[in-house]
Design goal:
Layout: H1 3-17, H2 22-51, H3 65-74
Length: 106
């Protein structure tokens, strides 16, 4: 969030709540944000304590769906990989040849 957005929120807050109630509302919003951050930190600490040493190296940020999308779709890809060659037992069908049919698989 940039300065322009903060300024717009301040102006809208001034119009909606008035100049006399705006400082109190800002104080309540700050306390709310502080409380939510503290609750999140306590939950993280409790989770780490309950999971024990096995999960101490788990990075919770890597489990965030936004981070997964960013890492897999938006970051520049590494070197292009060549398509996998068919397995030695696989062979290409000749023109007009019917593919094998497995009764048990269908």
């Amino acid at each position: 969030m940039g300065w322009a957005e903060i300024l717009v929120i301040g102006v809208v807050g001034m119009l909606v709540f008035g100049p006399d109630k705006l400082p109190g509302m800002a104080k309540q919003a700050g306390q709310f944000v502080r409380t939510v951050k503290q609750m999140a930190e306590n939950a993280k600490n409790d989770l780490g304590r309950e999971m024990g040493q096995d999960f101490s190296d788990v990075d919770l940020r890597s489990l965030d769906p936004r981070e997964i999308v960013r890492r897999n779709l938006l970051d520049s890809p590494g070197p292009a990989q060549a398509p996998a060659a068919p397995a030695p037992t696989d062979r290409l069908l000749r023109p007009g040849e019917r593919p094998p049919f497995d009764v048990e698989a269908t």
